[in-house]
UniProtKB/TrEMBL annotation:
Protein encoded by which gene: ddl
Metabolic or biological pathway, per its Swiss-Prot or TrEMBL entry: Cell wall biogenesis; peptidoglycan biosynthesis
Stored NCBIfam families: D_ala_D_alaTIGR, PRK01372.1
Function: Cell wall formation.
The protein's name in its UniProt record: D-alanine--D-alanine ligase
Organism (species): Brevundimonas lenta
Cofactor note: Binds 2 magnesium or manganese ions per subunit.
PROSITE patterns: ATP_GRASP, DALA_DALA_LIGASE_1, DALA_DALA_LIGASE_2
Length: 311
């Protein structure tokens, strides 16, 4: 961008069409509020199927993509923005689509030398009828985020009946992975010009159950310890593998890698890479940025200044 930051017109995309709409509205509001007074104009856009027309009329200098989940995070909106030749925040078309597909992203990460869970894709009706792998295991949609539609099946539990119900809207194939006991960890990465920089490691303890949608976004749903109290070699490995994952997936801007650490067997497993981490009041990435001296407004400004359009 050649224009001074204070002269920019930034359109903040929020809401959208996915099951993560409410989270996106919260992220988008926070980012738009942070930009008010820093740039010349902020346009708040509840993104719908008329997005291309809306943006063509607004003519923003930059788009801050605060959408989460399907359509906004999977490469579709990124393609619209590249067609309109508008610089935008976060990852591009290919890396966004890749990260949203858990099966394909696991293959890329494994090839890069990152330890990922086993398991694979199974027909949703088969998963509802019987245990397709020995319990304990995790059942989740192949292309959703924010722990939407995630179920943990423990020894003695019945198969996951939810995948066989008519209300299941997450596709005919579901991801089933062995459950990794231990600590829930997260690492935010900034894709700086000199290379990806991991900020720190957060240890997340849900107040009940596992780190599901409510634990992530409800006030008091989980407690965060940062930096995480881990063996030094695991702490360092989480940082390095997050940077490796960011590069292997072709991410840009901000990404977040989520891990499980089996402290009994000293095994660290990367569960997934998020190309558009939440920016809500309870989100991990702003918290980690603040820990290294970058407050919320600074982080949002950095993301806007990092925006680009390959086409």
């Amino acid at each position: 961008m050649t224009r001074p930051f204070s002269d920019l017109h930034v359109a903040v995309l929020m809401g959208g069409l996915s099951s993560e709409r409410e989270v996106s509205l919260s992220s988008g509001k926070g980012c738009a509020d942070a930009l008010e007074g820093q740039v010349a104009r902020v346009s708040r856009v509840d993104a719908g199927r008329d997005l291309a027309q809306v943006l063509a009329e607004l003519k923003p200098d930059v788009v801050f993509n605060a959408l989460h989940g399907e359509w906004g995070e999977d490469g579709c909106v990124q393609g619209v923005l590249e067609t309109l030749a508008i610089p935008y925040t976060h990852s591009g078309v290919l890396s966004s689509a890749l990260a949203m597909d858990k099966d394909k992203s696991k293959a890329v990460l494994k090839a890069a030398g990152v330890v990922v869970p086993g398991g694979g894709l199974f027909d949703r009706m088969a998963v509802a009828r019987s245990h397709v792998i020995p319990p304990p295991y995790v059942v989740k949609p192949n292309a959703e985020g924010s722990s939407v539609g995630v179920y943990v099946v423990m020894p003695g539990d019945a198969p996951c009946a939810a995948t066989g119900e008519g209300s299941w809207t997450y596709g005919e194939l579901v991801m089933v992975e062995p459950f990794v006991a231990g600590k829930e960890l997260a690492v935010t990465v900034l894709g700086e010009k000199s290379g990806p920089r991991a900020l720190t490691v957060t240890d997340i303890t849900p107040k009940k159950g596992f780190y599901d949608y409510e634990a992530k976004y409800a006030p008091g749903g989980s407690s965060h310890v940062l930096p995480a109290e881990l063996p030094p070699h695991i702490f360092e490995r989480a940082l390095r593998e997050s940077e490796l994952a960011h590069t292997a997936m072709g991410c840009r801007g901000v990404s977040r890698s989520d891990f499980r650490y089996d402290d009994l067997n000293d095994v660290l497993v990367l569960l997934e890479v998020n190309t558009q981490p939440g920016m809500t009041p309870t989100s991990l990435s702003p918290e980690q940025a603040a820990y290294v001296g970058m407050d919320y407004k600074d982080l949002v400004r950095w993301m806007v200044e990092d925006a680009s359009c390959p086409r």
